[in-house]
Specification:
Organism: Caenimonas sedimenti
Number of helices: 8
Radius of gyration: 19 Å
Pfam family, one: DUF5131
Order of helices and strands: EEHEHEHEHEHEEHEEEEHH
Number of domains: 1
Protein name: Phage Gp37/Gp68 family protein
Number of strands: 12
Oligomer: single chain
Strand order of the largest sheet: 1-4-5-6-7-8-9
Largest sheet: 7 strands, parallel
Length: 287
């Protein structure tokens, strides 16, 4: 079993609001929904209200931008861990416009905008709006169906510095080779994040799925970040698992692999004997 090691893949997290609606299998055990409920906020679902945060919260990225300028180093901001910026709701429109103004006002930050609704991005942006170079636009890809539905919409955005995939939770094998090569508009996927599920009821990730994504990225020269195994860790060699739940999964060559449900800290993030922590070089850092 891999030794635990955490990865700080972003420097800051900014949430303009809390709440969302589940749209695909990757949402089934949503950590953000569970966290909101632990805090007593019922903000998930089409009919649920969204929780809008204070002006003090909105001031934080301005402070982070000043700190980045003082340090002479760019900082990554994940937006939003507790929502989807491109959820289609009338009550989100003015807050999304405020977010776009905030992004424009913080050129020292790289904004990671991750959505399960890439088909909605263009219609929710102002007419003729173009993402500034500090924006990284990404979509969640948990299986092949969602890959083929969602990735093509990222190719519409030529001004975003980075287009990326979050293959987490990875629920099946995914072939993204064609998206790792320049497509229409001459853009491709620039970065791939991969990880397993870690909430209660987590579904195990076959190691072969993650290994395949790694191989595809290496072949195309695309940075790859393996974030975590999730709750189900790879037990190799097979040993005493005590009372932990185990499962055997089959590889394509017919061999079996055993996973054990030990929690994400113990499961760690080693893949093929090492940790993969690769990042793209954004356009804003090159200019």
């Amino acid at each position: 079993m891999a030794e635990n090691s955490t990865i700080e893949w972003t420097h800051h997290t900014f949430n303009p609001w809390w709440g969302c609606t589940k749209v695909s299998p990757g949402c089934d055990h949503c950590y953000a929904d569970n966290m909101a409920r632990r805090y007593g906020h019922n903000v998930w679902g089409h009919d649920a209200p969204r929780r809008f945060l204070s002006d003090a919260n909105w001031d934080k990225p301005l402070i982070w931008n000043n700190e980045a300028a003082a340090e002479g180093a760019r900082k990554r901001v994940f937006c939003a861990s507790m929502a989807d910026v491109f959820e289609v709701r009338d009550d989100l429109a003015r807050h999304r416009q405020r977010l776009l103004r905030l992004i424009d006002a913080t050129p020292g930050l790289d904004w990671l905008l991750l959505t399960k609704r890439p088909h909605s991005i263009k219609k929710l942006l102002p007419i003729d709006y173009q993402f500034p170079p500090q924006v990284w636009i990404g979509t969640t890809v948990e299986n092949q169906e969602q890959a083929d539905k969602r990735i093509k919409y990222l190719q519409d955005f030529t001004t975003a510095s980075v287009r990326f995939l979050s293959c987490e939770p990875l629920l099946g094998p995914v072939d993204i080779r064609r998206y790792l090569q320049p497509g229409r508009n001459g853009v491709r996927i620039d970065w791939v994040i991969c990880g397993g599920e870690s909430e209660h009821g987590a579904r195990p990730m076959n190691p072969e799925w993650a290994e395949s994504l790694l191989a595809q990225c290496q072949e195309a020269g695309v940075p790859f970040l393996f974030k975590q195994w999730g709750s189900w860790g790879l037990l190799n060699p097979v040993g005493d698992v005590g009372r932990h739940q185990t499962i055997r999964l089959a590889r394509q060559d017919g061999t079996a692999v055993q996973l054990v449900n030990v929690g994400k800290k113990a499961a760690g993030r080693d893949l093929r004997g090492r940790q993969w922590t690769e990042f793209p070089v954004p356009e804003a850092s090159r200019t």
